[in-house]
Every structure is written in structure tokens, then in C-alpha cells.
């Protein structure tokens, strides 16, 4: 055993240690040689006879293969780092050239980019990363803008709170609220009724019902601030309907204190039929003057698809009188439907009730729907429009005749 240990030490000193020193691994091999010598000294195996010899050539091959694997791993790591750096440089050049390249790219994304089979696939992958980065930037920008708007609103709310602390403003606001409430309370006893027909829930989507309730809330606010408000009635109104849920969402605790009349009965059961007039844009009868003795009905419906004839059919089915606003009589109407929002109808009716002036009332029609007010009688305007159309038609016929003669002469020449 001692002779084998001596042979091992000589072999390590003569052959392995110079090889390790050449490759910079001498420090790592000292504990290996020491452990090998100690293991051979301490090992006392009865099965091992003194005649057996240590296979030093095989041990040498194993050591050389381990060193080669470590050297190959370091070389492969250096190659991979160099290729990644080269890929980053090419991406930087493409970015400077104006191509769609992301600003920040991770090592995994860079490896997948290098593994792409073709140049077009690499371009598509880079374009995907570029758009993804743009979406993230836009989302971040939108979040920052929302945060800034929220801070601005908070600052404005704080400023308004400071102004509200002023005793005079608070007293004025409370007095005006009481005055408005007193007027509405008087209208519930002596005022002219105005009916909102709440039976169109099945004809609308949830979003359209929400828009309808929002317009009715605006109408109630306009009526409340008016000098002579209407007594608002919600007919065909059910407690478990979408209308009720949206009203509770808007008014909250004030819904129970609202000075209106809500009933699940039809307006024909509450009021006499001879006093009811259903206002609809599809009516053939045009409203000439505002009648203070009549009760006007407005259909609580907002339809994006503009379902024509729904309210007119309902009024005819109930045997009620219908009327439409004289929009074409007073306005040079553009192409489009003559449907107005509920708050616009409320403002028009309130102005007619107070002044009786159609021109002042129709000022609440959106300016995009008409060119201006009619300054001449309607029959004169119709005559001028008919004359313009006939002149246009005559010019068109002359152009068609000239074109026909030209084509006919060409055909004759070809024959």
C-alpha cells in the first residue's frame, strides 16, 4: 500500500500538476490529490490484494476529459455572450435606422429572436415586441393622465369646499333649494301635469334604459328650476323595473323625497282621454300652439337604432290624440331624424308654457340638425327648392344627351 501511495504522489507531481498549472487549475487539484492519497492510505479492504495495481492511465484519461469539459463550457459561455452582444448591437443599429425595434429587450427575448428561422420571422417578432412596448407605454401614460385629472379634481373640490364654507353662499344655496322645492310642491297641487310614459323598457337595452333615466334626471332638474314647473307623472312605472334601479342609483336617498308622482297605472286610467296628447315625431298632425288645458305625454325611450312608429302605434292603440313639433315650419332642417332628447323636449315645453314663442323654444334644438330659422313663408321656400331641382334636372338631361350622341358617333365610325 505504501509503495502504491508513493507511486501516486510521483505521478501527480510529474504529470498531472504541470498539466493543471498550464491550464490554471493547480489550486483545485491539490485537494483532489490529497484526498486520493488519504483515501488510499485509510482504505482497508480485505478483498483488495497487494498484487493488484492502480490503473493510472484510466485515471489520467478521466482527469483530462473533466478538464476538457470545463474548458469547453467556458468557451461556449464566452461564445454565447459574444453572440448576444452582437445581436444587441444589430438591434441598436436597426433602431437608429428607424425600424420597429423595442427599446428594452430581455435576454430571453433576445435568445428567441436569435432562434427565429428567417429574417422575416425576426422582423415580425421585433414588431410584436415593439407594439407590445407601445401598448404598455400608452397604458402607463393613460394611468398618469387619470392620476393627474384625479388630483386636479381633488384640488378643485377642495377649493369648492372652501367656498362652500362661506356662510353667505351656503345660506343662499339653501334658500334657493327651498324656493325651488316650494314651487314644485305648488305645481303638484295647481300645476299642469306632464306625463312620462315608462312602458318602453322591453324595447330598449340596459344601456339605452340608463341613457333614458339620465335624460329624465336632467329634465326633472330643468323643471325644478323653472318659474312655473310642471307636475311630473311617471305612469306605467313598476318598482322592480330597470327604470327604478337606475333612478335609485342616480338619486340615492333623495329618491324617496322627490316631488313627483310615480304610479304603475296607465295615463288613460289617471286622466281623461280627451285631454291627453301624445307627443311623437312620427305623428302626421303638427302642433301649432301650446295648450295649457291639455296634458302632454312624452315617451321615455332612447333608441340608438331609431325605431320609427313605436310611440305612434301605442297612441293609436289607446285611441289618443297625437302631435309633432313644427320643426320644418320654423327650421331649415338637414337630412336626418327629427327625434329629440327628453331634456330638450322638457326645455322646449317649459319655454312654450312661459312665453308661447316657438322661435325661443326651438333654440334648444341642437344646431347640427338645422341650417337656420325660416325667414320666408314655407310655400315660397318650396317654390324655390322646386325651381332649383328642375334646373338641376334639366342640366343633367342635357349632359346625358350630349354623352349619348358622342358614343353613338363613335360606334358609327367603328362600323
From TrEMBL:
<keyword id="KW-0808">Transferase</keyword>
<feature type="domain" description="SAM-dependent MTase TRM10-type">
    <location>
        <begin position="180"/>
        <end position="372"/>
    </location>
</feature>
<keyword id="KW-0489">Methyltransferase</keyword>
<dbReference type="InterPro" id="IPR025812">
    <property type="entry name" value="Trm10_C_MTase_dom"/>
</dbReference>
<dbReference type="InterPro" id="IPR007356">
    <property type="entry name" value="tRNA_m1G_MeTrfase_euk"/>
</dbReference>
<keyword id="KW-0809">Transit peptide</keyword>
<dbReference type="GO" id="GO:0052905">
    <property type="term" value="F:tRNA (guanosine(9)-N1)-methyltransferase activity"/>
</dbReference>
<feature type="region of interest" description="Disordered">
    <location>
        <begin position="140"/>
        <end position="159"/>
    </location>
</feature>
<dbReference type="GO" id="GO:0000049">
    <property type="term" value="F:tRNA binding"/>
</dbReference>
<keyword id="KW-0819">tRNA processing</keyword>
<dbReference type="GO" id="GO:0005654">
    <property type="term" value="C:nucleoplasm"/>
</dbReference>
<dbReference type="GO" id="GO:0070131">
    <property type="term" value="P:positive regulation of mitochondrial translation"/>
</dbReference>
<dbReference type="InterPro" id="IPR038459">
    <property type="entry name" value="MT_TRM10-typ_sf"/>
</dbReference>
<protein>
    <recommendedName>
        <fullName>tRNA methyltransferase 10 homolog C</fullName>
        <ecNumber>2.1.1.218</ecNumber>
        <ecNumber>2.1.1.221</ecNumber>
    </recommendedName>
</protein>
<keyword id="KW-0496">Mitochondrion</keyword>
<dbReference type="GO" id="GO:0005739">
    <property type="term" value="C:mitochondrion"/>
</dbReference>
<dbReference type="GO" id="GO:0097745">
    <property type="term" value="P:mitochondrial tRNA 5'-end processing"/>
</dbReference>
<dbReference type="InterPro" id="IPR028564">
    <property type="entry name" value="MT_TRM10-typ"/>
</dbReference>
<keyword id="KW-0175">Coiled coil</keyword>
<dbReference type="GO" id="GO:0160106">
    <property type="term" value="F:tRNA (adenine(9)-N1)-methyltransferase activity"/>
</dbReference>
<keyword id="KW-0949">S-adenosyl-L-methionine</keyword>
<dbReference type="GO" id="GO:0032259">
    <property type="term" value="P:methylation"/>
</dbReference>
Amino acid at each position: 500500500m505504501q509503495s502504491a501511495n508513493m507511486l501516486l504522489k510521483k505521478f501527480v507531481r510529474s504529470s498531472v500538476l504541470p498539466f493543471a498549472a498550464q491550464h490554471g487549475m493547480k489550486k483545485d487539484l491539490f485537494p483532489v490529490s490529497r484526498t486520493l492519497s488519504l483515501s488510499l492510505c485509510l482504505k482497508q479492504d480485505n478483498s483488495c490484494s497487494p498484487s493488484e495495481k492502480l490503473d493510472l492511465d484510466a485515471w489520467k484519461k478521466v482527469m483530462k476529459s473533466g478538464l476538457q469539459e470545463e474548458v469547453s463550457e467556458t468557451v461556449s459561455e464566452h461564445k454565447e455572450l459574444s453572440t448576444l452582444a452582437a445581436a444587441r448591437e444589430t438591434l441598436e443599429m436597426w433602431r437608429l435606422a428607424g425600424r420597429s425595434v423595442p427599446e428594452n429587450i430581455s435576454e430571453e427575448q433576445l435568445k428567441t429572436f436569435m432562434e427565429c428561422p428567417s429574417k422575416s420571422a425576426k422582423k415580425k417578432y421585433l414588431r410584436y415586441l415593439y407594439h407590445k412596448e407601445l401598448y404598455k407605454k400608452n397604458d402607463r401614460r393613460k394611468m398618469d393622465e387619470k392620476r393627474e385629472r384625479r388630483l386636479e379634481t381633488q384640488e378643485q373640490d377642495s377649493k369648492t369646499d372652501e367656498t362652500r364654507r362661506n356662510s353667505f353662499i351656503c345660506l343662499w344655496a339653501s334658500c334657493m333649494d327651498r324656493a325651488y322645492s316650494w314651487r314644485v310642491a305648488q305645481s303638484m297641487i295647481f300645476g299642469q301635469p306632464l306625463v312620462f310614459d315608462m312602458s318602453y323598457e322591453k324595447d330598449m337595452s340596459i344601456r339605452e334604459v340608463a341613457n333614458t333615466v339620465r335624460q329624465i334626471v336632467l329634465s326633472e332638474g330643468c323643471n325644478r328650476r323653472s318659474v312655473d314647473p310642471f307636475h311630473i307623472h311617471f305612469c306605467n312605472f313598476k318598482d322592480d323595473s330597470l327604470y327604478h334601479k337606475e333612478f335609485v342609483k342616480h338619486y340615492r336617498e333623495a329618491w324617496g323625497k322627490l316631488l313627483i308622482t310615480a304610479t304603475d297605472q296607465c295615463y288613460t286610467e289617471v286622466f281623461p282621454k280627451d285631454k291627453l296628447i301624445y307627443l311623437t315625431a312620427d305623428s302626421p298632425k303638427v302642433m301649432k300652439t301650446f295648450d295649457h288645458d291639455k296634458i302632454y305625454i312624452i315617451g321615455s325611450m332612447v333608441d340608438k337604432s331609431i325605431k320609427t312608429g313605436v310611440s305612434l302605434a301605442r297612441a293609436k292603440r289607446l285611441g289618443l290624440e297625437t302631435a309633432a313639433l313644427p320643426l320644418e315650419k320654423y327650421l331649415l332642417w338637414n337630412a336626418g331624424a327629427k327625434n329629440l332628447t327628453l331634456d330638450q323636449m322638457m326645455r322646449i315645453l317649459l319655454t312654450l308654457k312661459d312665453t308661447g314663442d316657438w322661435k325661443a323654444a326651438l333654440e334648444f334644438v341642437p344646431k347640427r340638425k338645422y341650417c337656420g330659422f325660416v325667414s320666408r313663408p314655407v310655400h315660397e321656400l318650396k317654390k324655390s327648392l322646386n325651381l332649383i331641382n328642375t334646373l338641376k334636372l334639366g342640366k343633367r338631361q342635357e349632359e346625358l344627351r350630349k354623352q349619348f350622341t358622342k358614343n353613338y358617333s363613335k360606334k358609327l365610325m367603328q362600323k
